[in-house]
Amino acid sequence: MGQQAIKVEDLVKHFGKGENLVRVIEGAEFQVNKGELVALIAPSGAGKTTLLMMIGCVEEPTSGRMWLGDEKVYDNRWLTKEQRKIRREKIGFIFQAHYLIPFLNVIENVTLVPQTNGVPAKEAEKFAMELLKYFDIADKAYNMPSELSGGQNQRVAIARALANKPQIILADEPTAALDLDRSVSVVKMLKKIAIDQNVAVIMVTHDEAMLPLCDRILKIENKKVVSEAVPEGSRHMI
Ligand SMILES: Nc1ncnc2c1ncn2[C@@H]1O[C@H](COP(=O)(O)OP(=O)(O)OP(=O)(O)O)[C@@H](O)[C@H]1O
Question: For this UniProt entry, which residues form the secretion signal (predicted)?
Answer without folding.
Answer: none
